[in-house]
Amino acid sequence: MTSLKVSFHSVGSSIYPACIVPAAVSKNVMRKQRHWEKIVAAKKSKRRQEKERRKAKHCQDANAGNDHQQHSKKFLKAITKERLLEAKDSGPRLCIDLSMTDHMSKKELSRLAAQIRRLYGSNKKAAKPFWLYLTGFVQNSPLYDECVRMNDGFVNYLVEFTEDSFLDLFPLETIIYLTPDSENVLEDIDPTKIYIVGGLVDESVQKKVTYQKAKGNNLQTARLPIQEYMIKKDNVKNYHSEILAINNVFDILCTYCETRSWPEALRAGVSPGKGFVLPDEIIPEN
Ligand SMILES: C[S@@+](CC[C@H](N)C(=O)[O-])C[C@H]1O[C@@H](n2cnc3c(N)ncnc32)[C@H](O)[C@@H]1O
After folding, report:
1. Which of 53, 99, 173, 201 is packed most tightly, with the most Cβ within 10 A?
2. Any idea where the SAM-dependent MTase TRM10-type domain is (predicted)?
3. Which residues contact 115 (CB under 8 A, 6 or more apart)?
4. Residues with CB under 6 A from ligand 1
């Protein structure tokens, strides 16, 4: 039996047995061939167009997404503003007494400016914000310049800035000066009172500054209930301090307003470095 070997030639995209050389291809086959080539070209072009359309839609969706994001950013900003302004009428009030910055070093001023930024940031995020006052705050003073330099949008903060003393702004009987040296414990936050924190950083610890200022003006004072809810934790340096930075004091007050729980509030503002822990944070030794 002889085997028949057939080799193939291609014409266009079609393949013909070699015995059928292109010259011999009938007109009918050629017509079909051209028709087929048109279909293939049309399909290719349709695929290209489809790809372009998908690409354009993707771009459009991405832009729409950005618009939406922009929208929600604006929306969130508006809500925050509304909540802060609501606090002006009905919220608890806190004042940072910035009248004691004269002898502060540049480094201390920078730290205070950063603490004010954190405090304001916490207030913006708070479910129940405070209405904030920055009193004894002199425009173009070294602290003012440092705040403007370090804190984006500082001059637009939604707070009350004033050069006046808090002593001239509020009835004295409504003032409670928060000071770690007070003999009174802060038990609750009263929206009819105005709570003052001292704009001091304890780089060069000046003991009892705010306590003496408050006593000198016959003001009520209170300290945070750290000793009441926390216990001293052994540490190498045997270091235990109840003196907190103003932003940590503020985080405690804010969390208390939200949760009405002092343990939760203290957890939010007293770092382990202070040498105090909550009883539930003690890990039993084996
Ligand atoms: C870094 S402390 C300055 C302490 C400073 N030796 C003084 O005489 O107030 C900054 C401010 O946070 C507030 N503060 C810090 N720890 C506090 C605490 N345990 N209880 C109440 N207020 C506190 C006080 O208003 C204080 O003036």
Report:
1. 201
2. 80-277
3. 201, 245, 246, 247
4. 178-180, 197-198, 200-202, 206-210, 223-224, 226, 242-246, 249
Fold of 69-220: Alpha/beta knot (3.40.1280)
- φ/ψ region of 240 (left if φ > 0, alpha if ψ in -120 to 50, else beta) reads beta
Q: Does the pLDDT at position 145 exceed 60?
A: yes
Please write down the long-range contacts of 12-15, taking CB distance under 8 Å and 24 or more positions apart.
Answer: 12/36, 12/37, 13/37, 13/40
Match 């330099």 to its residue by tokens.
149
- The burial of 231, by beta-carbon neighbours within 10 Å (0-12 exposed, 13-18 middle, 19 or more buried), is given as middle
Query: Ligand 1 pocket: which of 132, 197, 202 to mutate (most atoms <8 Å of CB)?
Result: 197
**What pLDDT was estimated at residue 204?**
65
Cα–Cα distance for residue pair 150/157, rounded to 1 Å: 13
Q: Which of 24, 22, 2 is nearest to 10 (CA)?
A: 22
Helices (H), the chain: 27-90, 106-125, 142-150, 209-216, 226-229, 246-259, 262-269
> 140, 271 in Cβ contact below 8 A?
no
* Three-state DSSP state, 249: helix
Pairing between β-strand 276-277 and β-strand 231-232 as defined by DSSP bridges: antiparallel
Half-sphere exposure of 77 (CA within 13 A, CB side): 8
Q: Write down the domain spans for the chain.
A: 69-220
**Site to substitute for ligand 1 among 210, 230, 252, 262, most atoms within 8 A of C-beta:** 210
| Range with top average pLDDT, 18-27, 35-44, 242-251 | 242-251
Is residue 265 within 8 Å of residue 252, measured between CB atoms? yes
Distance (Å, whole) CA 43 – CA 177:
81
Does the global pTM surpass 0.90?
no
